[in-house]
User: What shape does this take?
Amino acid sequence: MYNSMIMCQFCNPPAEIIVKLLTYSTGRAYKIEDLDLLGERIFNLKRILNIKLGVSRKDDYLPKIVLTPLKEGGTEGRVPNIGKMIQKHYEIRKWDYESGKPTEEKLKQLGLDKLQI
Assistant: This one.
């Protein structure tokens, strides 16, 4: 939402303030729930655009440095289970695990079902 509103990421006003700013600046009454939906639509639209530009599930990974176990410290010898993390992320986002694309159900929920992926 911050990027879409061209807002500073560091000021982080509460959702109540953002709702007021949007309502006052557009003349349309917004609720906090609207921000959630707008943010999710934006996130999925970005994913769809990236897919159209050739991005796929194979491009969802962490850099090598994050997947290299540390030799000491609290995470010594351990690395994130990226496969499990991606699977859970896709599940929460309602994206297809094999392709990385938003499911038809998710697109319909967001009113984006007329888009061709």
